[in-house]
């Protein structure tokens, strides 16, 4: 660890990826500031980033040493690292030998650093010889990934944040960046202040804080997004605001698309979506007349049983108007987690291969297998996040290694997940906090180092890779995740895990990208430290801020694909017993399951307790007054929270934040007790935004 007092890092919360200066005084006390020289945030931080030092300094909940139990009848006991990893390797070897490699799996996180992700993927796909590794990014970005691959030929975000200051029209769909991506939102806000003619369309069933700068709020009926985007597409066609030149030369599929969108009248679309024809036409006019149009979206689209098709329907609006590959224009998925993109780069999902190689391609599989020095990599995709827990539940899988994520709170249908963990033969939990709920069912607990306690890299939402320095030692016996994986691999007798530094792991990943669309093979830590960050691909010493400026896409024929979607939907159906639509989301000052932000008093003051947002008419018919406790019921289970009556939400829709668990005997807010284990058939992303529900007085 260095002795200097200021270190460079990147915020460990959302995918905006703000640059942070970490100051350490002579007594080791840490404070943080936004890095004024960092292009993403130019010195600013949101409330969560600003308070990161409290999280680092409060070690009261940290896991400090490995713990293990010999069977479910035994208590957990403190053990040393050697005993812990010897046992882990013995159990994994025995299960793989007896039941085959697909009986084990790893469930990792978009908060892992790229090097950690790379090793977890290498360990699982290369050496366990199963593709059963998935990440909680499955719950966040997998629909966007499939959307990009189908239309642009690669999992890639084409634009840079700098495009914000050049755009004149934004559509923010299924996202509340004012609370969930605050620094980006402030850039949009400042841009609109300076350029009042900038048009902003917000698409959301709730009137969120992001609507404060909206020129047009399309408060659609939940689940009708595809119909809305197709209707806007139709209105753009009818107004003649297409970019014919771009469509003709750089896309496929427009004729089929035109037939699909013209098959439904605007009147029919209006009846389905709840948006007036005038508003649909106005949105189409804003987009059709834009000089630079940025289409931003997040979980409102992705977390759906129709997530892939919602993404495609939205992306089509950029393609028919030629709003991609030029300054101030493009589709832009907002990433929830700090390193969801880095995880995809190293292939840390069940359906991916390292360095964006294609798991379905035998040459790619052999190339990666040779690179890792193993015989082969399985062709069959692994089980995704929810599928792994189904397999643990059914007994098909026996062991799971959970790294830096809290599935009992964050996966849908929490009770099912808890049952799955109870049924598993061996559960490893590798985490920083003793508040991770899965610990209750762990057979082995491995204490990991946290932010500032290890070095590595992350990639933010605009493909920007940054290096995070190690600033302080980890408490107790906690180790960096990379070291845990390497020590375990050596216990397993695997070769190729004897790195001398974290940078060696990074270089191994980087070299594998050579010749791919995400090529960073020239990149090393020295360059990252000198330049502070670069955007991939990084070739000939140059970062790439914007992709497709030559209109050559990553598809085989170099054309973008306009893909028709259909509107089939396997979400819950509302009925007389469950007449309300429950949608879930985040609040400004909490992060995921609150294992970190929940420790900070300042952050808890913003909204101290969970709540149910409900329209006044829905509250009235149920005899509920503001602040009273309500019971929310779905087919999966129930929660109890206080009601927040608000006309900002559509009648018939209710909203709960996803962060809390049990607060007291009266208040129980584990939202995923209510959500269904229903997934998009293509992206396998769960549907958190549409659960049929009822609300009654407590
Ligand atoms: Fe951190 Fe995101 Fe806030 Fe930036 S906007 S400080 S990355 S939480």
From TrEMBL:
Signal peptide: none
Residues annotated as domain 4Fe-4S Mo/W bis-MGD-type: 4-60
Domain of life: Bacteria
Swiss-Prot/TrEMBL keywords: 4Fe-4S, FAD, Flavoprotein, Iron, Iron-sulfur, Metal-binding, Molybdenum, Nitrate assimilation, Oxidoreductase
Cofactor(s) this protein requires: [4Fe-4S] cluster; FAD; Mo-bis(molybdopterin guanine dinucleotide)
Family (UniProt): Belongs to the prokaryotic molybdopterin-containing oxidoreductase family. NasA/NapA/NarB subfamily.
Name of this protein: Molybdopterin-dependent oxidoreductase
Residues of the full protein shown: 1 to 698 of 1166
């Amino acid at each position: 660890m260095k002795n200097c007092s200021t270190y460079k890092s990147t915020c460990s919360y959302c995918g905006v990826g703000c640059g942070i200066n970490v100051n350490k005084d002579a007594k080791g006390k840490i404070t943080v500031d936004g890095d004024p020289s960092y292009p993403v945030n130019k010195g600013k931080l949101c409330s969560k980033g600003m308070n990161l030092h409290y999280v680092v300094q409060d070690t009261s909940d940290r896991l400090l040493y490995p713990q293990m139990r010999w069977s479910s009848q035994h208590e957990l006991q403190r053990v040393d690292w050697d005993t812990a990893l010897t046992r882990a390797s013995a159990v994994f070897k025995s299960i793989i030998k007896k039941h085959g490699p697909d009986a084990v799996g790893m469930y990792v996180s978009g908060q892992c650093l790229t090097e950690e992700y790379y090793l977890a993927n290498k360990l699982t796909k290369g050496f366990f010889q199963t593709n059963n590794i998935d990440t909680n990014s499955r719950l966040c970005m997998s629909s966007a990934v499939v959307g990009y691959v189908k239309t642009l030929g690669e999992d890639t975000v084409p634009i840079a944040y700098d495009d914000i200051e050049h755009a004149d029209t934004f559509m923010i769909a299924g996202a509340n960046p004012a609370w969930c991506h605050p620094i980006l939102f402030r850039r949009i806000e400042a841009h609109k202040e300076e350029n009042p003619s900038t048009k902003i369309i917000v698409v959301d069933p709730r009137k969120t804080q992001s609507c404060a700068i909206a020129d047009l709020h399309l408060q659609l009926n939940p689940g009708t997004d595809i119909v809305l985007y197709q209707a806007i597409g139709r209105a753009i066609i009818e107004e003649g605001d297409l970019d014919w030149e771009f469509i003709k030369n750089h896309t496929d599929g427009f004729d089929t698309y035109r037939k699909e969108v013209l098959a439904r009248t605007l009147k029919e679309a209006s009846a389905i979506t709840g948006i007036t024809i005038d508003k649909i036409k106005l949105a189409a006019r804003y987009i059709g007349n834009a000089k630079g149009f940025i289409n931003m979206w997040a979980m409102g689209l992705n977390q759906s049983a129709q997530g892939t098709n919602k993404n495609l329907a939205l992306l089509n609006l950029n393609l028919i108007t030629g709003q991609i590959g030029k300054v101030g224009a493009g589709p832009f998925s907002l990433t929830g987690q700090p390193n969801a993109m880095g995880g995809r780069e190293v292939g840390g999902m069940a359906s991916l291969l390292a360095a964006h190689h294609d798991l379905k391609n035998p040459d790619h599989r052999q190339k990666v297998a040779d690179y890792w020095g193993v015989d082969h990599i399985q062709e069959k995709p692994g089980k995704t996040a929810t599928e792994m827990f189904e397999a643990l539940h059914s007994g098909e899988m026996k062991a799971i290694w959970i790294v830096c994520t809290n599935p009992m709170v964050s996966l849908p249908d929490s009770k099912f997940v808890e049952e799955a963990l109870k049924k598993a033969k061996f559960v490893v939990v590798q985490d920083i906090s003793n508040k991770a709920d899965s610990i209750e069912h762990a057979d082995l607990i491995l204490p990991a180092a946290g932010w500032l306690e290890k070095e590595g890299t992350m990639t933010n939402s605009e493909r920007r890779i940054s290096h995070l320095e190690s600033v302080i030692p980890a408490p107790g016996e906690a180790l960096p995740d990379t070291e845990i994986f390497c020590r375990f691999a050596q216990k397993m007798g695997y070769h190729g895990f004897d790195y001398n530094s974290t940078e060696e792991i990074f270089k191994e990943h980087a070299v594998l990208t050579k010749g791919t669309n995400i090529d960073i093979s020239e990149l090393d830590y020295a360059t990252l430290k000198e330049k502070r960050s670069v955007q991939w691909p990084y070739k000939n010493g140059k970062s790439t801020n914007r992709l497709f400026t030559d209109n050559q896409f990553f598809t085989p024929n170099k054309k973008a694909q306009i893909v028709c979607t259909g509107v089939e939907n396997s979400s819950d159906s509302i009925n007389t017993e469950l007449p309300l639509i429950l949608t879930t989301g985040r609040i400004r000052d909490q992060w995921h399951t609150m294992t970190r932000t929940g420790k900070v008093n300042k952050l808890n003051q913003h909204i101290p307790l969970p709540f149910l947002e409900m329209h006044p008419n829905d509250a009235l018919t149920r005899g509920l007054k503001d602040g009273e406790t309500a019971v929310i019921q779905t087919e999966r289970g129930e929660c109890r929270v206080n009601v927040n009556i608000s006309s900002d939400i559509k009648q018939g829709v209710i909203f709960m934040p996803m962060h809390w668990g049990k607060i007291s005997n009266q208040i129980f807010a584990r939202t995923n007790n209510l959500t269904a284990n229903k997934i998009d058939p293509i992206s396998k992303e769960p549907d958190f935004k549409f659960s049929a529900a009822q609300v009654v007085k407590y």
